[in-house]
Amino acid sequence: MYDHSDLIGTPFQYKARGEGAYDCYGLIMELYRRDFGIELPDYGSTEDVGLAQARMVTASHSWKRLDHPEVGAVMLIKCGRFVRHVGYVVEDDMFYHTWEKSGGVVCEPLDVWKGKIIGFYKYEQ
Questions:
Q1: CATH superfamily, with its number, for domain 5-123
Q2: Which is the most buried residue in 5, 16, 56, 68, by most CB within 10 A?
Q3: How far apart are CA 41 and CA 6, in angstroms?
């Protein structure tokens, strides 16, 4: 799809929305802006990813649930008992994400997180 290699290694920071750092949802917002020209709603900090999930699931006019990963899909990731993380699919088997233990923005195979992925969604205007 699109080349996002310039983002690799950009530091993780809670509540960050760019300008040198991102949290996981801030990265999703940046990638949607770049790839689709879409300004996603800002659901808040990474502590509020459960709220983002609830809005994605109930706001059927905006977020469409997908049966499988596809380029541009946002994947919801369960950490412990709750959804606390999101990633962005860039190939059928790869995704971008960032979190406190990744050392910044990384691109990894979906299989690495396979047991924690609970769904794929795509934003539609």
A1: endopeptidase domain like (from Nostoc punctiforme) (3.90.1720.10)
A2: 56
A3: 24
